[in-house]
C-alpha cells in the first residue's frame, strides 16, 4: 500500500482516503508565460486527463490547465466503483433512442471500463489497486425484477451478469438490509486519484504539458484559433476542450447554464482488521439500487469506504460525519464504535438528462463533461471519442447527439434536483416497507 505523502503540494487536496494513500502528486508549475499549442484542455479531472493522454499519444501538442491540482475534484474523491453504464437509466435510454442505439451507447461505456483496466495494466500505473467484482443489491425483495434485468442484459446487450439469491447475498454481505443481488464479474473498484496521477505522468512523458493552480480566466477568437488568458499567462490554440464537470465556474457561461453541480458524500473508517471479513466476505464493491444509492467496499488496507446521499444545493452538512456514521451503522451496526478517519464531499457535473456532453459547442470549442457520477468509465471513453474526432474526424461521439445541451434550471435547478431525490426516496422507503 502506498504511504501517505508529506510533500507540501498535497496540502491543497482535501483530506480523504485517496490523498492519504496517493502516489506523489504531479507538482506541475502554474502557467506564467505566453505559449502556443494545438489543443488546450480546461479541467484536470479524469475526462481532461483522458483527452490529454489520447491526443498526446496521437501526436497532438496538448496543454492542460487545472485551477487546483490534478484530480482535485470528484475524479479524486469518488467511491472508486468501475462498471459500464451512465447516470441515465438504461430503460430510459432504450425508450428514447431504441435498442440499436442504446446498445451502441452501452458498448461505449463498456469500452470505457476496458480502457481504465487496460491502461492501468499496460502502463503499470502505480497504486491503482484494482479489485474484482461489482455487486448491485436491493433493500426489498425484488428477485423477479433482478432476474428479468439479467436476462435483458444478456439477450439485448450480450452482457453477462449473475443473480445472487438472498441466502447467498447475506453470506457475502452480512446484513439483513439487502435481499437480492446482481453480480458483475467484469466490474471492479480502484484508486481513482492514483489512476489520474499515473495517466497524467504518462501524458507528460509523451510531451503533454500540465499547468496546475492555473485558472482559465477568459477566451476569445484569435485569428483562426483561440486565445485563453490566465492570471499570469496566455495560450494560443486551435481547439479548446472544456472538462470542468461539477467545478464549472463561469468560464463558459453557456456550458455552465447546462450543467448542474450535485454534491455527494464519502467516508472511510479506520482499518478494520478481522472485522472487515465479518461484515463483507467478497472482494466486490457493493452498490444498492436506489437513486441516491449507498455504495461501499473494503479497501486494500481493510477500511470500509462508504459513500451515499446527494444534494443539488452543493453544500456540505455541518454534521456530515455523524450522517455518514448513521448510514453505515444502519447496515452494519457492529461498526458503531469504529473510528471514522476521513469524511469528505465532492461535486459531480450532471445534465438534466443525466447523460454526458460530448460535442462541439462552436467552432473549435468542445464540451467533454457531464459525467454524472460515472466518471471512472465515462471519462476514459470521452477522451478517446474526442481524440478520434480531432485527429481523424471520427464520428462515434455523434451517437450521443440526441442528448444535447439542456438548461439546468438556473436557481430552480438545485431545488428541482432535491425534490426529485426526496420524492424517489419516499417511494423507495414505501417499497422497503411493503416488500420486506
TrEMBL record:
The EC number(s) this enzyme carries: 1.4.3.-
Keyword Transcription regulation on entry: no
Domain FAD dependent oxidoreductase: start-end pairs: 39-388
Top-rank lineage group of the source organism: Bacteria
Pfam families with a match to the protein in the record: DAO
Gene Ontology molecular function terms on file: oxidoreductase activity
Keywords attached to this entry: Oxidoreductase
Presence of keyword Flavoprotein: no
GO cellular component: cytoplasm
SUPFAM superfamilies noted in UniProt: FAD/NAD(P)-binding domain
PANTHER family reported in the protein's UniProt record: FAD DEPENDENT OXIDOREDUCTASE DOMAIN-CONTAINING PROTEIN, SARCOSINE DEHYDROGENASE-RELATED
Protein's name in the database: Gamma-glutamylputrescine oxidoreductase
Origin species: Aliiroseovarius pelagivivens
Amino acid at each position: 500500500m502506498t504511504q501517505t505523502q508529506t510533500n507540501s503540494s498535497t496540502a491543497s487536496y482535501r483530506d480523504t482516503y485517496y490523498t492519504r494513500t496517493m502516489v506523489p502528486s504531479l507538482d506541475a508549475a502554474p502557467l506564467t508565460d505566453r505559449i502556443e499549442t494545438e489543443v488546450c484542455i480546461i479541467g484536470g479531472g479524469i475526462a481532461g486527463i483522458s483527452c490529454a493522454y489520447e491526443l498526446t499519444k496521437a501526436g497532438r501538442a496538448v496543454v492542460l490547465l487545472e485551477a487546483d491540482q490534478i484530480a482535485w475534484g470528484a475524479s479524486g474523491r469518488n467511491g472508486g466503483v468501475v462498471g459500464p453504464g451512465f447516470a441515465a437509466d438504461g430503460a430510459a435510454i432504450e425508450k428514447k433512442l431504441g435498442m440499436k442505439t442504446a446498445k451502441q451507447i452501452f458498448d461505449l461505456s463498456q469500452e470505457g471500463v476496458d480502457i481504465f483496466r487496460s491502461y492501468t495494466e499496460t502502463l503499470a500505473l502505480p497504486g491503482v489497486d484494482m479489485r474484482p467484482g461489482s455487486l448491485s443489491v436491493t433493500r426489498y425483495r425484488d428477485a423477479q425484477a433482478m432476474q428479468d434485468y439479467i436476462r435483458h442484459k444478456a439477450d439485448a446487450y450480450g452482457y453477462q451478469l449473475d443473480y445472487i439469491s438472498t441466502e447467498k447475498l447475506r453470506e457475502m454481505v452480512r446484513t439483513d438490509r439487502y435481499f437480492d443481488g446482481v453480480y458483475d464479474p467484469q466490474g471492479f473498484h480502484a484508486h481513482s486519484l492514483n489512476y489520474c496521477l499515473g495517466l497524467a505522468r504518462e501524458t507528460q512523458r509523451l510531451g503533454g504539458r500540465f499547468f496546475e493552480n492555473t485558472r482559465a480566466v477568459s477566451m476569445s477568437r484569435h485569428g483562426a484559433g483561440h486565445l485563453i488568458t490566465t492570471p499570469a499567462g496566455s495560450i494560443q490554440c486551435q481547439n479548446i476542450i472544456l472538462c470542468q464537470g461539477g467545478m464549472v465556474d463561469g468560464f463558459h457561461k453557456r456550458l455552465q447554464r447546462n450543467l448542474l453541480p450535485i454534491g455527494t458524500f464519502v467516508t472511510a473508517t479506520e482499518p478494520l482488521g478481522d472485522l472487515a471479513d465479518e461484515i463483507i466476505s467478497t472482494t466486490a464493491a457493493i452498490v444498492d439500487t436506489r437513486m441516491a444509492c449507498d455504495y461501499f467496499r473494503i479497501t486494500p488496507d481493510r477500511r470500509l469506504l462508504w459513500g451515499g446521499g446527494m444534494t443539488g444545493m452543493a453544500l456540505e452538512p455541518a454534521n456530515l460525519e455523524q450522517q455518514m456514521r448513521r448510514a453505515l451503522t444502519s447496515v452494519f451496526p457492529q461498526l458503531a464504535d469504529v473510528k471514522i478517519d476521513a469524511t469528505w464531499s465532492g461535486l459531480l457535473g450532471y445534465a438534466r438528462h443525466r447523460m454526458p456532453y460530448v460535442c462541439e459547442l462552436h467552432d473549435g470549442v468542445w464540451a467533454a463533461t457531464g459525467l454524472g457520477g460515472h466518471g471512472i468509465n465515462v471519462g476514459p471513453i470521452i477522451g478517446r471519442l474526442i481524440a478520434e474526432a480531432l485527429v481523424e474526424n471520427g464520428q462515434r461521439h455523434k451517437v450521443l447527439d440526441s442528448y444535447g445541451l439542456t438548461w439546468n434550471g438556473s436557481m430552480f435547478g438545485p431545488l428541482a434536483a432535491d425534490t426529485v431525490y426526496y420524492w424517489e426516496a419516499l417511494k423507495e422507503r414505501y417499497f422497503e416497507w411493503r416488500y420486506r
